[in-house]
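ENTRY TYPE: paired fold submission
RECORD: A
CONTENT: sequence, then structure tokens
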Amino acid sequence: MRCSGWWVIILLLAGCSTTPDGGYVDSPNGRPVPVRQDRNTLHQLAKTDLDRLADIEYSENVSTLRLLMLKMYKRNPAEAQKSGLGSPEQIASYVFEQTGVHHWQFDALGGAQDTAAIKLALNAQYSGDRVLALVVGIQSMLFRAHGNKSAFFLTDSIEPQSLYNAARNIEIAVWKLTNARNAQGDLLLLTNSQPGEVQNLSFEREFSKLIARTDLLALTLAEKSQRFISRLTQSITTAPFLPFR
């Protein structure tokens, strides 16, 4: 495939969100193209177009999930106090910038990761930080669905089915998030606007970006490698979380 074709897909993946170094270059159609901090380094020679595509998809999803974390803390300010990890900004910085320290193991979550952490966030009996549980759950799930890597090279292989299943799990989590309530009938976590409030669908848009990027990479990898993706038909309201590694 021509390089220009890959940049069309990369533009779709990136949208208008920020990149790790916050840089952009102008494109012919006026839409900003994200600049990778390592774009001119020698190790880029060890990457295929698909590897670069995966790099962009993963880093953009991290940026989106970090934004969602801060938005959820703003909407649910009491949650940040439960983890004992500081302010919302401090928590987000620790979660996304200190992965080599915590390795997705948080005492506040009892070590729960991926779908186990997501289930904590959606458990009416859980008294801990639901925002931390949800975000750590989704991010650690995506990390594992990408083969336990955040940067990709010629020797790496990502299983398209794992990515596809992870995207479905995010859909399931988001549906449950908008419906899960405590014994008093209150939502466990507030996201989109409630009746009587000014309409706000920004949470839905950001979660949709996560799902769309992950799906697009899964389908692109499947097409390139001629691998079949099993698309199970199930009701999202009763569906269990799918395996993703």
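RECORD: B
CONTENT: sequence, then structure tokens
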Amino acid sequence: MARQHRSRWLRLLRHRLLDESDVSRALDAEAMARLEARVEASERRHTGEIRLAVEAGLPLSYLWNDLSARDRAVTLFGKLRVWDTEQNNGVLIYLLMADHAIEIVADRGLSRAVDSTQWQSILHGMREAFRAGRFEQGLNQAIDAVDALLTARFPAGDSDVPHNELPDTPWTP
């Protein structure tokens, strides 16, 4: 019990010590602009929406209630309105730096068409890049993999006028 209590306090401390400056060091303004451009280019090839979210640490309420990165990703999926796309094919790619956690949350239109092994494969590639400190590369890999899934299942037709339902800029608190 003492070990679990200590672990909880260490997690709390780790999340409180990291802030937006840690995100900026890992992904500077130029990297964020390149990620935004990559999402924008991707969305010209399909009717889906990709949203990136990067956080240094969880909000205190999540830590206090011992919630996970997955819990936060699902909350942001709603808060950022990724679920609110016309074809229900939005995807949130979430990076939580304090826990070295990554999550992908896909709306029901895409989830029905993609099995869990494909999502796990994407996450595995991201983890390898993040472990090596290559955050931009890991996010690029994820964008490219999600782009391939969306292009295969929701391609932009000749008559489709590209419209952007969600911002392409990576979300940070």
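NOTES ON RECORD B: Helices lie at 2-17, 20-26, 29-42, 60-64, 69-79, 108-111, 116-131, 135-153. The chain has eight helices and three strands.
STATUS: closed
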